[in-house]
């Protein structure tokens, strides 16, 4: 009985073990090395989705035409995946003094090196804050102790530095936001924390580290009282306002409205590639995907993933792997760990009678039927299709004309019952996946 109790405690500890720190990505949009560079960052607190969804939207839908913008979509990936403010305490309070035994030490040093890069001329840090900041007390929701909907500087002037007139820049940035308010109650105010005069908390923050190293730095807060799309709306206005002041020109491929932002965040065409062998749509998946191939002997958070979106990740959780899009859980994977063989790059499929060369991995749209041509040295298992009277444990479902009605809908990967996975194997090694999407 005692042994069983000890095992239960150890198992519970393993499940509660925090996710190991994950370093951030840096994406550079550059047009001219002689032009100014703005460093844009979000997600230092993992439960503030307005910031990291804004950086994601910026990367996906803005184009720099003159100047340079470096973007860190999410500084604190591991906390974002766990929807947690900070798995290892508040990352935004580690820039004054930090022990080299801190689990996030290498990430903080990476951020500091980025901030102090000679190319960086100005920094904008995005946050979500409670309530609505007001210089004077109006109510419990609108008062000086709230942080939502304000633009922040640590001091008014940074002497002898280009773009060092922080007060002038932040006031013009805030004016740009206020010219485009959705409601008068959303009004932005400048908040000067006068950090050097004794604000012990702000002395530990990222923006003040930048100030101490001669870098103009600004923060923008969107209110947690607002919907996600409205928070992103105000963050994007702040980004545009700062870029205008720095002299960086840009274009965007949509009209800036909350409705359009909602549509773009929830883009049903988004997909994600996993380990260059697997592809999944981000939206519409079943809550659980069973017996799903995952490479063995790889730490889950180091498995390569790629997508148009920059805030997608894999989270090991309770013996499953969760696909996360920012804070949102898209599906839970029950993994089938196996060796991966990446030697196969293309296969041939007849799609509605037309022969096509298909790259691995891909999503193929089918109106009527499809047929995967035989591949020497490889076999194909179409999950959900059962060959009549075939008892083989290792099917090879090539050279068969297959219609939607012949696929069992409960084995589809999507809730609509239209998308089926064709898994390709070389011996017992997984070689890739093609998704068949019936229209």
Descriptive notes:
The protein has 439 residues and is an alpha/beta fold. It has eight helices and 26 strands. The chain has helices at 2-16, 49-61, 77-81, 105-115, 166-178, 206-212, 228-246, 258-265; strands spanning 27-30, 37-41, 62-66, 68-72, 122-129, 132-133, 142-143, 150-153, 189-192, 217-223, 249-252, 271-274, 278-281, 288-295, 305-306, 312-317, 320-325, 328-338, 346-351, 354-359, 362-366, 369-372, 379-382, 402-403, 419-426, 429-438. The chain has a seven-stranded mixed sheet, with helices on both faces. β12 and β13 form a beta hairpin. α2 (49-61) crosses α7 (228-246) and α5 (166-178) crosses α7. The longest helix has 19 residues, at 228-246. The termini are far apart. Mean pLDDT is 95; it is low at 1-15.
Classification by helices and strands: alpha/beta
Principal-axis shape:
elongated
Strand order of the largest sheet: 1-4-2-5-10-8-9
Give me the count of strands: 26
Sheet-strand content, in percent, reads 25-35%
Mean pLDDT: 95
Report low-confidence residues grouped into runs of 5 or more.
1-15
Provide the helix percentage: 10-25%
The main pleated sheet reads as: 7 strands, mixed
- How many individual helices? 8
Radius of gyration: 25 Å
* Distance between the amino and carboxyl termini: 56 Å
């Amino acid at each position: 009985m005692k042994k069983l109790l000890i095992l239960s405690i150890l198992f519970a500890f393993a499940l509660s073990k925090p996710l190991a720190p994950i370093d951030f990505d840096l994406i550079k949009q550059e047009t001219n090395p002689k032009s100014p560079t703005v460093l844009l960052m979000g997600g230092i607190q993992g439960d503030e989705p307005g910031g990291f969804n804004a950086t994601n939207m910026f990367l996906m839908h803005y184009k720099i035409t003159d100047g340079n913008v470096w973007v860190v979509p999410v500084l604190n990936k591991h906390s974002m995946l766990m929807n947690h403010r900070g798995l290892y305490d508040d990352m935004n309070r580690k820039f004054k003094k930090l022990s080299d035994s801190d689990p996030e030490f290498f990430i903080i040093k990476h951020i500091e090196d980025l901030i102090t890069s000679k190319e960086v001329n100005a920094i904008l840090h995005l946050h979500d804050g409670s309530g609505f900041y007001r210089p004077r007390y109006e109510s419990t929701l609108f008062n000086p102790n709230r942080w939502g909907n304000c633009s922040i500087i640590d001091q008014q002037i940074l002497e002898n530095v280009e773009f060092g007139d922080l007060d002038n820049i932040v006031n013009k940035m805030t004016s740009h936001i206020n010219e485009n308010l959705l409601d008068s109650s959303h009004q932005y105010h400048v908040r000067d924390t006068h950090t050097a005069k004794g604000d012990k908390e702000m002395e530990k923050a990222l923006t003040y580290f930048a100030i101490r190293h001669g870098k103009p730095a600004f923060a923008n807060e969107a209110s947690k009282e607002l919907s996600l799309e409205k928070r992103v709306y105000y963050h994007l206005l702040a980004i545009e306002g700062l870029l205008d002041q720095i002299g960086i020109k840009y274009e965007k491929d949509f009209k800036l409205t909350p409705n359009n932002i909602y549509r773009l965040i929830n883009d049903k065409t988004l997909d994600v590639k996993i380990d260059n062998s697997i592809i999944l749509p981000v939206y519409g998946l079943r809550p659980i995907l069973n017996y799903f191939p995952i490479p063995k002997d790889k730490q889950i958070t180091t498995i390569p993933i790629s997508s148009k979106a920059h805030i997608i990740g894999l989270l090991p959780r309770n013996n499953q792997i969760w696909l996360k899009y920012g804070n949102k859980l898209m599906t839970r994977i029950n993994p089938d760990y196996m060796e991966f063989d990446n030697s196969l790059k293309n296969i041939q499929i007849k799609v509605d009678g037309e022969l096509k060369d298909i790259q691995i991995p891909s999503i193929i749209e089918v109106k009527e039927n499809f047929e995967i041509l035989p591949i020497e040295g490889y076999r194909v298992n179409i999950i959900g299709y059962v060959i009549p009277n075939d008892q083989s444990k290792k099917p090879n479902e090539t050279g068969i004309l297959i219609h939607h009605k012949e696929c069992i809908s409960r084995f589809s990967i999507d809730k609509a019952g239209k998308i089926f996975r064709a898994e390709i194997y070389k011996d017992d090694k997984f070689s890739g996946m093609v998704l068949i999407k019936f229209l």
